[in-house]
Give the backbone structure.
Amino acid sequence: MASVSSKTPMLRAAAARGYAAHAQAAAASRGSSEVQTTTLPNKLVVASAEANAPVSRISVVFRAGSRNETADCVGAAHVLRAAGGLSTKTATAFGITRNIQQAGGSLTTQADRELVTYTVAVTKDQLEVGLKYLEATATGQVFKPWELAELTPRIRNELARLPKEVKAVELLHKAAFRNGLGNSVFCPDYLVGKHSSETMQHYFAANCTTNRAAVAGVGVDHQLLVGFAQNLGLDSGSGTDNKSTFNTGEVRHNGSGSRAAVAVGAEAVGWNSLKEAMAFWVLQHAAGVGPAAKRGANNGPLTKALGNVNCSALYNSYSDNGLFGFVLVGDAKEAGKAVEAGVKALKSLSLNDADVARGKAAAVVTVAEYVENHSTLLAQLGEEAALAGQVYKKSDLIAAVNAVTASDVQAAARKVASSKLAVGAVGNLGHVPHLCDLH
């Protein structure tokens, strides 16, 4: 039932931080439907859209991602999402699985550095069943020791299957932020199976409270969703916001084989700086995110500079900070040369008007595709509600992209060029230069 996400969804760059000071309801046009938000007196935010969608999708979202882990509970967020669907105060793991399957639905748990999200999807006639087991899973887990022990093979399997480029990006975060955002989405291998029931209960209690939560829905009546949210059995409390500052540094994991993956990042901005974040987002698309068509060539000045390795410009934005750079994977000898070329390109990144126009067009398409798909629309609603306290219209997001000017993008590029760098690398690193050798 649980699934793991190591990426921050791109649309977080399109939201601005803002917490409602009192209960409120607001509606905004999104095509022919409405987006509605309500902030309850206990600070829990409810957001919904597309009430007439044929499938009801509901998420309970917590600001409980890995950035909230402390030294004594590293890896707890990974265990928390792996534990989605285990026994709760009101249902057994078998009962949850059996009833969701009989309803023809799905119950999943996803997470990244900032959020843990529990989601149910069912047809409208099975909504009552779906909400019953979503509530049980999102609010009532008991973390039985023997069930936690049974998660160990699953977590080890997830770690063993991680692509090298994902590992490199995780190491980049460790180098750049050390703790907080530097905490990996994945549990360290040496801690797998070491999280006790008490540790997990404490982590949940500290981070899964009404002040740190949101309920989002697509294909469900807004007032019904508000009623569901009002009755969730959650404690109140705001917890702590684990701030992270950018640092220069390098984390390398040498290994065997003939391939290497390297992620290089400079300091960027979080989406609490909306205008700058949108400029960085356009910069990412303009710099190159891989071929735009089958058998096409790399489509930007940064990715072209990297040569024949598989590569992409990288922009990871969070609520209060961000990283901009590139990630590549390829033959170890070619990777070393590509890193040197990539760093040189970052330090002198030059974009013409055509590059910026292409970047804006690609960003607009991404926004449109994201909000037209009900699953990703639900993710957007949950993320914005949990992290910003409100949701944004499709038209506003597109307008924010279109408002980015060439000078805004060039300013973002200059910020990257003047920033110190952080590096994460994994694989055969014999030909990959160290950070101190990159200029």
In short: The first helix runs from residue 76 to 82.
